[in-house]
Amino acid sequence: MERWTFPSMIPSGSVEEVYIEWAQYVGHDPTRDKGDLSYTVAGTEYNFQVEARAVNGFQLLVRLGGMSTWNDRQGATIDLSWVGRRTQYPRFNGVCFVLSGTGQNFVSSSTRPLTVPWMQASLGTIGQRPLRHVCMPGSHDSGISVITGGTLFGDARVCQTQVKSIADQLAFGTRFFDIRPVIAGGHFYTGHYGNLPALGWQGVNGQSIRQIVQQMNAFTAINKEVIILSISHDFNTDAGRNYRGFNQEEWNGLFDELIRLDSLFVASRDTTDLTLLTMNQLIGNKQAAVIVVVSLDRSHLTLGNFAHRGFYYDFQLPFYDDYANSNDPNILIEDQLQKLHLQRVHPDKPLFSLDWTLTHRTLQDVTIGPSILEMASFMNPRLAAFVIPSCSSKTFPNILSIDKVNNATSIAVATAINALFAS
To answer: Could you tell me the pLDDT band of residue 98, with boundaries at 50, 70 and 90?
Structure first.
């Protein structure tokens, strides 16, 4: 290896950036290039190895020797999927590996889904904490992992935000879902739409609401976790070229679909703020708790008879959510971390959603820039490196909202925050 600069020790709770360079000079056989080192978790016999190999292209691997995680068996090999230099975002080259947890409850950022319900497994740590003292993974525009319909200029490059279904996102530890309902062809789907100059309303439909309900029911039948559905950005795409929000009858139709969720959490009638409930109050009885939070954008709209059946107004689960609205990773990071430190000055403040998502801003972005999924590939591996050093016992995010949930990075970062900072 030309450069292999791993430290001999990485302190608990820290983030290390390591520069790796393969030897590629004239006359050198790259298949003979390799690097090896081993780490042991202090005070335990748990260990893992980091390996670089170039037999079949460049590979960076982690092998779990004397330990297992929620998503990797003992002896498993984790391929970190080597990424070389990127010219567009040179600061965001590279890959990441996150290992977090305490005791025997560890999780890694591998591409394997979790085999245990992480909230239940963590109740010994987080059980007495109110919801606002807990960090969890979230997904942005959660239902747009497939394209099931849409407009002429709506396509995957500019609209698709996810590559895994709701079922698979749940398996990777996601517990907060951004559900944006639309009516299309008389049925309820998730949607990702925008009103563009000269083009009008453009966008796509994703998973159907009915399919999401089925997948959540299958999950909660086995996994007794807290799951939050944030319902907003409603549009009736059947109502002519000028899409409008739902009327009361249409909202009631959506609620009739969502009432089929098996594990809706019904709080006592005097509950005004769900984030003050402890995790034990929510799931300590070994029952799942699905919370449906609805943003109604007009004063005459109500939850009606659904108000005390597991459906809540957004003010009953207060959280701060303000995305950077930029396609520049540097602007996004500065924007979100600044907002975190301004809004979340104490753990008893409302929930904070860290929106780790880049956005198309101009026609040029849409036509020749990277897709939403490609931009997520730049940002997601940097989540731990920028977020964990910005946290403290007073300031930490509650929701890590990302595009392209396709590995366990978010739950590994959330687990680190819950162990190091939340209390």
So the answer is: very high
Choice among 161-170, 194-203, 213-222 with the minimum mean pLDDT? 194-203
Q: Rounded to an integer, what distance in angstroms lies between the CA atom of residue 295 and that of residue 229?
A: 11
Give the contacts of 172 (CB within 8 A, at least 6 positions apart): 113, 114, 137, 164, 405, 406, 407, 408, 410, 411
**What is the C-alpha to C-alpha distance for residues 307 and 374, in angstroms, rounded to an integer?**
40
3-state secondary structure the chain: CCEECCCCCCCCCCCCCCCEECCCCCCCCHHHCEEEEEEECCCCCCEEEEEEECECECEEEEEECCCCCCCCCCCCEEECCCCCCCCCCHHHCCCCCCEEEECCEEEECCCCCCCCCHHHHCHHHHCCCEHHHCCEEEECCCCCCCCCEECCCCCHHHHCCCCCCHHHHHHCCCCEEEECEEEECCEEEEEEEEEECCCEEEEEEEEEHHHHHHHHHHHHCCCCCEEEEEECCCEECCCCCCCECCCHHHHHHHHHHHCCCCCECCCCCCCCCHHHCEHHHHHCCCCCEEEEEECCCCCCCCCHHHCCCCEEEHHHCCEEECCCCCCCHHHHHHHHHHHHHHHCCCCCCCEEEEECCCCCCCHHHHHHCCCHHHHHHHHHHHHHHHHHHHCCCCCCCCEEEECCCCCCHHHHHHHHHHHHCCC
What would the pLDDT profile of 127-172 be if each residue is shown by its tens digit? 999 999 999 999 999 999 999 999 998 889 999 999 999 999 999 9
> What integer pLDDT is reported at residue 85 of this predicted model?
63
Render pLDDT for 30-57 as a digit per residue (tens, 0 to 9). Answer: 788 889 999 999 888 899 999 998 888 8
pLDDT band at 241 (very low <50, low <70, confident <90, very high): confident
pTM (whole model) above 0.90: yes
